[in-house]
Structures are given as C-alpha cells and as structure tokens.
Predict the structure.
Amino acid sequence: MSTPTSFKPLTRRSAWKALTAHHKKIKDVHLRDLFAEDPKRGQRFTAEGSGLFLDYSKNRITDETLQTLFQLAEESGLAARREAMFTGEKINLTEGRAVLHVALRAPRDATILVDGKNVVPEVHAVLDRMSEFAERVRSGKWKGHTGKRIRNIVNIGIGGSDLGPVMAYEALRHYSERGLTFRFVSNVDGIDFVEATHDLNPAETLFIVSSKTFTTLETMTNAGSARDWLLAGLGGETKAVAKHFVAVSTNAEKVSAFGIDTANMFGFWDWVGGRYSMDSAIGLSTMLAIGPDGFRELLAGFHEMDEHFRTAPLERNLPVLMGLLTIWNTEFLGAETVAVLPYEQYLKRFPAYLQQLTMESNGKHVTLDGSTVDYQTCPIFWGEPGTNGQHSFYQLIHQGTRLIPCDFIAFAHALTPLGRHHDMLMANVLAQAEALAFGKTAEQVQAEGTELALVPHRVFAGNRPSNTILADKLTPAALGRLVALYEHSVFVQGVIWNINSFDQWGVELGKALAQRIIPELESPTPPRLKHDSSTNNLIKRYRKMKGA
Ligand code: G6Q
C-alpha cells in the first residue's frame, strides 16, 4: 500500500477550527431569522448543474459557514484528490486499485489511462456486445433451448451486483419493455429464488449471473439452484444452460467452470467497485429492460454530472455542496442520520441503493494512514418515498428529539399524469420542507384557539434542515445524474474525512465466520464447537430444532 498524500489531521486543519468557533456563534440561530434577514436567501442558496436544481437554503448555514466549508475542502486537497480519481490513479490504497466508475460513462473518444493503457475502448467494446445481445433478446432472435423466445429475465447477484440493477429497473420501469418480466434474486434465503421463479416457464427464462468475483456465497448458491430448476424443467439436458445463462463478471475462469460459455460473458474490471457498477455490464438487466439507447442515455446523464463535478466551481458544484453540507450537519450539528425522501414512486428502491453507496463507502473508522478518527464519519442513510412516510415516521422528524436532515427529491412532470395527483404530490413535498424549516410557534398555536394544555403538543420547533432536489422528469439521463450526484457527494465526504471510500473490509468477518459455521450446522454428527457460549448454545439449539 503506497502512502497517501498527507494532510493535517481533520480536526487540526484551520478551517475545521474556524468552523468549530463559527458553530458556537450560530448554533442557536433559527432558519426563521436567517430567512427574515435575507429575503433573497431562497434564491441565493441554490445551484443548478447538469439538469438538477438544488435548493439548500433550508440548511442552518450562513455565507460564512459556506465559505469556511469551501476552505475546508481546499485544505483537504479536494481538487487534487478528484483529479487523481478522474485520471486513474490508484486511490483505493488498501486494495491498490484505481477507482474509475467515471470511465464507464466516458464518451468513446475519451482517454483514461490505467497503468499506461487507455481503458475507454474496452468499456465501449463491452457496451457494444451488451447492446447486440440485448437487441437479440428483445427482438426474440435469441431463442431458449426449446426454440421459444425469452420472456423472463432473472438477475442473480447481491450487494453491488443487485441493488443498482433492481433500483434502476424500478426507477425506469416506465421505459421498460413490458413484454419481458424482470425478477431479481439476491438473498441466500431460498424463498427469494422460489418466489421469483414460481410462475416462470423455464423454457422462456434467461438468468443473468452477476458477480464480479463469481465466488460470492449467495450468488453461487442461487445460480446453482437456478441451474437445477432449469434442467429439471427442460428434461435435464445440460446443453440447455448455454441458452439460458449469461454471466457478468471479471472472473472468466470461474464463469467457465460453472458451465457458462465465456462467449456469453460480459466483463468489467477491478477498477469498478461493486457499489459503483450499475453502469458497467452489471447493468445488463437495465439494458434489456430499457434498450441499448435508453442505457446510453443513462450513461450520458452520469457523464454530464461527472463533468459538472470535475469542472464547476465549488460554490456552484452540486456534489461538493451536498457533501459539505453533510459534513456540517454531521460534525457540527450532531446529526446522526440523513433521510432521503423521493416524491416519485418509481424511486422506491433509491434509498436502499443509497444505503450501500453511502454507508459501505464511508462507514469507516480509520483514516488512509490507519489512524483512528476523532470525529464522526458516515451518517446513517435511510428513507422511503413520499407521501407514504408522512403518515408514519415523519412525526419524529418534525417533533422528535433528534435532528434529521432530509433530502427531498421531486420532479416537475409525472411520467404518466393522472388527474390532479402530481400537483398534490408536489404540494406535499414543498410543504414538508417548509414545515420542517419554519415550524409553528406556541403563539401561532394559541392564536388558533388551541386549548392551553394542548399547546406544547402542537408546537413545531422548526429549524430542521433539508435540501430539495428538483428535476424536470425521471428519464434515464435524470437517473444517471442523480446517482452520480450522490456518488460524488460521497467522494467529497470521504476526502474531508480522509478515509478510503472504496474498500469494504467490514463485510469480511461475518462472511468468514459463516463459512466456519455452515459445516457445524450440516454435520450429521454433533460437531465439536469452539465458539463463545452464546454461539455454541444457539448452534446446538438450532440443530435440535431442525432435528439434526
Ligand atoms: C460493493 C461490495 C459488495 C459486492 C457484493 C457482491 O461495493 O463489494 O456489495 O458487490 O458482495 O460481490 P460480487 O459481485 O463479487 O458477487
């Protein structure tokens, strides 16, 4: 592991000290006062880039806060670190890899070098092969083993090889080929596979086994069950596998050992992290759903946001602003979570997708040089689409004791307008941000004639921060821009915290322990257990309960 460029530890940077002092000064200032002092605040604290409009005026910040946050970005070497990523430097230091999801959406004539080799032609070669394959399946030219056309696509993958594909399929369903059925299997819980396939005809079903490593327990177990299910349905002829299985992987050897012809394998590279891979061949199911042109539109949206992030000045740079505001809310206002609230039903899986992107990237406790941090890192991301959440957990956001910054996401146009629905949806998102910021004082509650004893219960303190992200409508390009916005915001936060946003060692320990426990559960004779007393006892009880 090569040594990172060293910066002063975060809490010793002068901008950090300035922010600490500044926070003391403004910590009791209310958004009501900030808006009253500056009638133009709602226009001033906005930014627009690559088709997205960001209103960040309802954050507890002043001009000084912003300027000091920009200074912090500079003192943290953001510009150099960003350039290092875009130019293929091996910034994933713990794994010795470049981090080049931006190359996946670079135009054909771009040049991005990794170890002296331009990777862009390979990216486009895979995209061209995917397009050709997608056309064959969508047009019915690709036939299953019995000569029937494919009508069902099942993506088998987990984590980064599942969350992006399923989120993108749901998000872009409006544009999808409705004659094809899409299912996504991830969990090693057999129910996931059983339910996904129970009404499918094997003769018309194509499995995409999506796994960067092609060794992941869940995916390989599900892929094995899929092969058994297919062969059982098609009379056991193993050559049927070639017509019903394709693979997306970086591991040709394992793909071939599984029995998938590598001619039907779509590759990617070690410089694509799982959670950054939905626009690589891992997006094959997305391309099958929306077609190659739609997929290229998605990539173009990603690329626009990449360019915006790379070139826009800090004060107009959406990912920079969002990243720095998360730093402010987390470090100085003490927020522990961020709620992501899309007012767009098609984005129902977007919060789940973001949970991996944000928390697997920035859920770290040591800096690049291995020292333990003395500040918080990634907040907990969560959320649900509006308006549903308003009738459940919003109570806590409005009147609970915790500060929960919210990202509201909304679109000016409904994809399928229906009566007055869209204006009602939009009225709700705007009202929520307004209510959170400004609240309702005891005087206002009393003036409504509220019984005195009820007044405290009906007071809304307000001063709760939020961002509102507005876009025209949810197109493939808009989705690309939105995902890239969060990818780069995560990057900005990682740079400030001086952590590696691109490894995920934290998922390893549990995986290794499970491998040790599997034979202990399956052993026909009582195993000699050497765990702690709780784990030993639970293993024994489980074996007894299942009749082992
Ligand atoms: C993502 C992680 C992780 C990974 C899955 C699946 O950044 O690395 O979620 O995507 O563990 O891995 P495979 O694609 O190798 O099966």
